[in-house]
Amino acid sequence: MLCMSIFKTISFYLAILGLLLAVILTHLFQQEPPEAISIKEPSRSPFLQAIASSGIVEASDKNIEIGVPEDGIVEKLWFKVGDPVHRGDALLQLDTRALRAKLEVQRANVEVAEATLRKAIDQFERVKKVKDPRAVSKEDVTTRENEARVAEMRVKAAKAEVEETTELLNRLIVRSPIDGILLKQDVRDGEFVSRNKPLLMVGNLKNLQIRVDIDEQNAGYFDKNSPAVAYPKNNANVMIPLKFVRIEPYVVPKKSLTGTSEERVDTRVLQVIYSFEEPKDYNMYVGQQADVYIDNPLPEHHED
């Protein structure tokens, strides 16, 4: 009788557990699937026939990459990314301890050389004033004069060493070549840096431009007078009219790859610079990619 009671109790709880599992599973399977992420429609050329290219937004007169004159440890940074800078502003300073110690020694050498010069001049003036040739010979006078001249040259040499070291110290301070904005800073205080790698980037953001890469196969069809437009990458809703600025006539290896399957990594491109007015309802940023279309009224449609 006891066994029967226990069996019924266990069966009851198993039934309850099964019912709960059924309710939970039903709830899970009835949940709505997550909404599909909408993919923006890619841009299309507004021209009947066009040269399709890719472009990179950059500061006017190009983004200026700045490095250091020699390998060393960063001692000081004056600005952070986004700060306005002016031409000549100090941006970065390398470790100057060794040169500053050397400069102190050289300044002391200047003082020693100047003291030696004063002594040599004093001795020369004394022997020069002696009128009795029996007391001081002409050779003594000449010797004292030459010693004074040598001492004078040593002072000049010591001062030249100070000037040289001062210039080397100034060389360790990296300054901005233009008025603009600090766009990039790939370095921290105390970090060891190499002269082979650009660490800073400065650009003038008052006027933006687009550097367009035209495939070398299409370069011969390019006409600077043809209308051109740009769209932010994969955004067909923002069309930006472009104004031709200049051609950089040397065809270079393509650096910014779009990632399309038909793109060749060994492609060389003709780079064309266009200026544009930034859209009022859409912000453009330096380094942003753009799809560019240049009107090309030819029988065939040429693309990258």
TrEMBL record:
Q: Where in the cell is it found?
A: Cell envelope
Residues spanning the membrane: none
User: Cross-referenced InterPro entries, in alphabetical order?
Assistant: BSH_CzcB-like (IPR058647), RND_pump_MFP (IPR006143), UPF0194_transport (IPR050465)
**Signal sequence region:** none
| A single cellular component GO annotation | membrane
Q: Which UniProt keywords apply?
A: Coiled coil
What molecular function terms (GO) are annotated for this protein?
transmembrane transporter activity
SUPFAM superfamilies, sorted: HlyD-like secretion proteins (SSF111369)
Residues in domain CzcB-like barrel-sandwich hybrid?
A: 71-203
According to the UniProt entry, the coiled-coil residues are: 148-175
Name the family the entry cites.
Belongs to the membrane fusion protein (MFP) (TC 8.A.1) family.
Q: What is this protein called?
A: CzcB-like barrel-sandwich hybrid domain-containing protein
Q: What is the lineage of its organism?
A: Bacteria, Pseudomonadati, Chlamydiota, Chlamydiia, Parachlamydiales
